[in-house]
Backbone:
């Protein structure tokens, strides 16, 4: 398998070809939002220049072309995660909306006050708050799988946590704050053995690894486009056909109906039952173009390059006095959270920005993770396949300057 030609790839991402504070930009905030290739940008532009019209509603050529492009993107998503049917793919604004859809349409109707929902300690707020809200509305209890100081899930008591009160499990495939890759297939198998349905938050997984929802046998899988080189405001919910067909719509409006009268409404079939109103057509087309680009690069080559960046950056960061890496799981994607003794993460981020380096600082929408490690915030560098070893070295040198400044 040939290695990546990263310099050629970078030419496809025009935003990377700029200076920040007079220094070449090193964009290392990919876990928050990734950049877009010219292929994605051109696909969106072409839609607005040539095909802009609503989908599923018109017999004229523009509407037909828009509908074809929209549905072609659904097929690309289906292929990308190996779902069985196109109708199992619901377009949403992102992983957050997908989780809320499942919470309200699938989980909430099943809950009684004595029931439990299970999540993990390393979840993004988007996979915590919706379940807290549902518990408040139903009287159900929220339970949490603990984690270790290595930043891995502690599954020693999983059999006890998955009990006859547990009605649903929602867990991340990869931690956005730690980069930990969770053993979700094993967890799904254990949950299914007790007839517990499972949702997987794959927002941090799909840009970095092969995802096969049929092999995982999860009931729901969600992800956001903007973390996988696609536009903001688009994402996908995968759900098993039998489950989606039994679920009530979450939102009402156009396109999710077959007929409407003042006496009753007949809902459309899946997936349209869950896509009320005019969808993000250009976003879905951009998502399809991003999938095409990832497939062209090759997910295996992409992942291998990112792992090389992670290994190099981890070793070099560990050599800096005062650095503490947060999350040292055996299996990680290219996420590197860290603290520098005596320096607030915002100061680290501000000084790195002066050196043209973009990282994330703060709690990363994972405050329970920060609290577990006894901190309120951390700096986070996160890698994509367009990043280089030179950028890793620039990151390390800038952090050394931060340390010298605050020493």
Residues:
């Amino acid at each position: 398998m040939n290695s990546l030609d990263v310099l050629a790839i970078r030419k496809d991402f025009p935003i990377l070809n700029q200076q920040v504070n007079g220094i070449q930009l090193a964009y290392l905030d990919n876990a928050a939002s990734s950049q877009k290739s010219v292929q994605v940008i051109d696909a969106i532009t072409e839609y607005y220049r040539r095909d802009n019209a609503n989908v599923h509603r018109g017999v004229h050529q523009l509407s037909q072309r828009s509908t074809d492009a929209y549905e072609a993107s659904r097929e690309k998503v289906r292929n990308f995660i190996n779902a069985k049917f196109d109708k199992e793919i619901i377009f949403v604004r992102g992983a957050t909306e997908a989780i809320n859809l499942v919470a309200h349409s699938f989980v909430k109707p099943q809950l009684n006050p004595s029931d439990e929902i299970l999540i993990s300690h390393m979840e993004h707020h988007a996979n915590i708050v919706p379940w807290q809200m549902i518990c408040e509305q139903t009287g159900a209890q929220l339970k949490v799988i603990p984690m270790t100081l290595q930043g891995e899930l502690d599954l020693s008591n999983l059999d006890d946590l998955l009990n006859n009160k547990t009605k649903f499990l929602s867990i991340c495939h990869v931690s956005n704050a730690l980069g930990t890759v969770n053993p979700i297939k094993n967890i799904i198998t254990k949950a299914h053995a007790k007839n517990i349905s499972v949702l997987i938050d794959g927002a941090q997984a799909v840009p970095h690894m092969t995802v096969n929802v049929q092999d995982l046998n999860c009931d729901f899988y969600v992800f956001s486009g903007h973390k996988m080189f696609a536009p903001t405001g688009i994402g996908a919910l995968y759900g098993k056909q039998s489950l989606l067909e039994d679920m009530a719509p979450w939102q009402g409006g156009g396109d999710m109906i077959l007929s409407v009268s003042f006496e009753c409404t007949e809902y459309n079939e899946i997936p349209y039952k869950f896509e009320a109103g005019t969808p993000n057509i250009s976003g879905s087309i951009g998502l399809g173009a991003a999938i095409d680009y990832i497939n062209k690069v090759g997910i295996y080559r992409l992942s291998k390059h990112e792992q090389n960046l992670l290994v190099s950056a981890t070793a070099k960061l560990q050599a800096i006095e005062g650095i503490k890496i947060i999350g040292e799981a055996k299996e990680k994607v290219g996420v590197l959270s860290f603290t520098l003794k005596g320096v607030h993460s915002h100061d680290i981020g501000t000084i790195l920005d002066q050196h043209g380096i973009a990282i994330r600082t703060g709690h990363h929408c994972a405050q329970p993770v920060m609290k577990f490690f006894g901190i309120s915030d951390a700096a986070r560098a996160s890698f994509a396949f367009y990043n280089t070893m030179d950028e890793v070295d620039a990151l390390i040198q800038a952090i050394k300057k931060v340390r010298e400044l605050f020493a």
The chain has two domains: 6-30+298-406, 41-295. The radius of gyration is 22 Å. The longest strand covers residues 166-172. Residues 61-81 form the longest helix (21 residues).
